[in-house]
Amino acid sequence: MLTITLLIAAFSLGLCAQTKQYAEPHELKIDSLVRRTFPSYFGGRHRFPQLIPENFYPIGWSKDGKFAYYVEPVDEACGCYFATLVIQDMRTDKKIWEFKYSQDDSYVGDRMTGPGDIRSLWKKNQKLFSEKLAENGIVASRSVMLSKTFTSGRRKFTAKMTKKLGPNADGYEDRVNLYTVSLSSPKLGAKKVFTSEDHTKDEFWFMLDAGLIGVIKSPFEDRIAIVAVEVMRGYEGPPHTGDVRITGADLKSGFETK
């Protein structure tokens, strides 16, 4: 009996030691999509871009509808590196696990000592990241950004955003107080998939704009991640920042016809 127990323990340790190591993900460039979605922040009278989006790194999907991704928030005034890794349930939009990093938290004396890019941060935390991704069944793969209007299973779909606008408290620009994301198909009808929090009464709310830039489809089921960008006013005015926001939707149920 002791021998069997030892063998089971050794086998379990072997499984732990064999936890799959996930490689550093590849960036999915979204700059051109952001320019196309928010043209007023680029060109014309603007000598420099007035909007800088986060860097976006899709990692992969699980077979039960989870989507993992890594973003690099814009450094506005710190001179620091920021990063967030998210595992999100695309059935409920709930974030299952989130890792947030700020290089600004790594000072020793007057020097930042923490990782300053994705390569060094991923290397330092590869064991943790791999454990969490494996625990949630994430299969790493290269993602393709589809258009807001796309075809799946011989059906055409369109993701759309509607916005509720209002003035900022300081009177400088209008802002987006609330937005709704919907999905429609000529054969199935339409459905609302996400409504943001309403900030109409929030004096210190500075979302200047919002828009959809595309969708990423799961390779395992009829489910998508709808990718939005929220334009938040810059720390000292422009350039403003473009924050990536992900919303899930399935392509089969919940549609209603008029």
Any overview of this molecule?
It is built from three helices and 15 strands. The chain is of the alpha+beta class. It has one domain. The strands form four sheets. A five-stranded antiparallel β-sheet has the order 5-4-3-2-8, covered by helices on one side. The longest helix has 18 residues. The radius of gyration is 21 Å and the shape is globular. About 5% of the residues have low confidence.
Summarize the structure.
With 258 residues, the protein is an alpha+beta fold. The protein has one domain.
Oligomer: single chain
Order of helices and strands: HHEEEEEEEHEEEEEEEE
- Biggest pleated sheet: 5 strands, antiparallel
The overall pLDDT average reads 91
Strand order of the main beta sheet, please?
5-4-3-2-8
The 3D shape can be described as globular
Key features of this structure:
single chain; 258 residues; alpha+beta; four-stranded mixed sheet; 3 helices; 16% helix
